[in-house]
Amino acid sequence: MHEILRAMRRHAAVTPHRPAVTDGISSLDYAELAARVAGAAQALTALGGAGPRPVVGILGANRVEWVVAQLAIWQAGYTAVPLPPFFSAAQCRHIAADAGITHIIHTPDADPGPGGPSDLPLQPVPAMTAATAALDLAGTARQVIYTSGSTGTPKGVLLEGRQLSWSTLALAQAIDARPDDHYLSLLPMALLLETLCAITMPLSAGARVTLMPGLTDRMGGPAPGPAPLRLADAITAAAPTCLMLVPQLLAAWVTELERTGGTVPPGLRLVAVGGAAVPPALAERAWALGIPVHEGYGLSECCSVVALNRPGQRRPGTVGRPLPGLRVTLDGGEIVVTGPSVMSGYLGTTPANEPAGPATWRTGDLGTFDDDGHLTVHGRRDALIVTPGGRNISPEWVEAHFLNDPRLSHCLLSDGGMDGLAMLLVPAPAAESWFEAAGNDAIAALASTAAAGLPAYARPRRHHVAPLRDLAARGLLTANGRLRRRETTAAYHLQLHPPAMPAIPTPLDHSTTDH
């Protein structure tokens, strides 16, 4: 992380009045940013005393104060623990205890929420007093990212400053980050990927960042209300060159542009999309509108980015080539990552000694490489379905066919054994009224059309519709908005596989290709 802080200070000295970050309420140029970070770091050092080095939680929305707080914690040599707004109060209490958080600082509009970790010292970001302190790099900056994954109990991914710095510089090289870039931040800053894309990468390159708090919901999807229109208008008004989206936000933007005939900003050169698989048809619709979609792949345990389609080198249907310096191999089809971005370990289980060589992480994801080294991700190894007929089915492959329909936000394939396959359909926000008005025949026709390109053994025999708000209320979404597969399957098992319900006969399929 030292490299990032030094780069910010260099920009403050060479181009002091270049715009650095704004949220529509506050704005800082590079000189002001460096001074505010130094002032906040000085204030934070008073927290240390003679005891253990503080572990500082960050709470709030995407505001200038969050950026200052994040950089100041690193400059003070402390451990930063973002508290995701999409976690429950119980999960936040678990994070506070598990990480050993000693203090929590918050942005002006933060809401600790009922039952949150309010028994800890809670104070505003001590960031808005300027200072010119020397850059003290004696401390060890760390970041702990909590990911719920497929369980409800968050796990803390421990990342050292060296892993964050390496990933920042490798990502900047991959996308050709430039001082004249303008990054628009729409996803929650508590996500590691947004920390890289909205703080470390643009500020190390001397670029400017615009934060848009309130445009997305707590999961990073469109905010309640007429969000797609606000999203399209915000992107047009900001006129960024780069931004990061999840597939749900991309779908909302594409749908609004198709409905209104709107256009994308002329200087937009890169829209990176990650967090979940991007349906190929959605990517094609985006490119037809002039949205330069570039799919990527990664996970928190590997500092968020493993592979990315580079500008000018995109290969549709893949997530691009691995970042330079990472060794990505396949072991029995499983993606294995070795290199400097692999985490130090989960908090509480970190080895006492650093590994002798580059660390390795078995991702649990299945993938293949094409002849040019572009990676295609096929889904989770532990999600593989084996049918009574002996067929191996990756549910993500079947779900991708359904997600090509813009009326769907999420879907999940469930295995009922001899009862056959069933699909949970989750309407996109813009299509909820269509599902409410549609009869059973219309929804069945949607499902039949979505499955038309699949072999018979992979076609769901039945379906069930569940609103996204119901899934969110039941805690069935992960931190980045994906369905928690095991819990969702259990929660809707009776609807998907009702007892004594006759199945629709499925023609025998003689294909020999498994997915």
UniProtKB/TrEMBL annotation:
Domain annotation AMP-dependent synthetase/ligase: ranges: 9-347
Pfam families in the record: AMP-binding
InterPro entries in alphabetical order: AMP-binding_CS, AMP-dep_synth/lig_dom, ANL_N_sf, ATP-dep_AMP-bd_enzyme
Coiled coil, from the record: none
Protein name as it appears in the record: Long-subunit acyl-CoA synthetase (AMP-forming)
Organism: Nitrospirillum amazonense
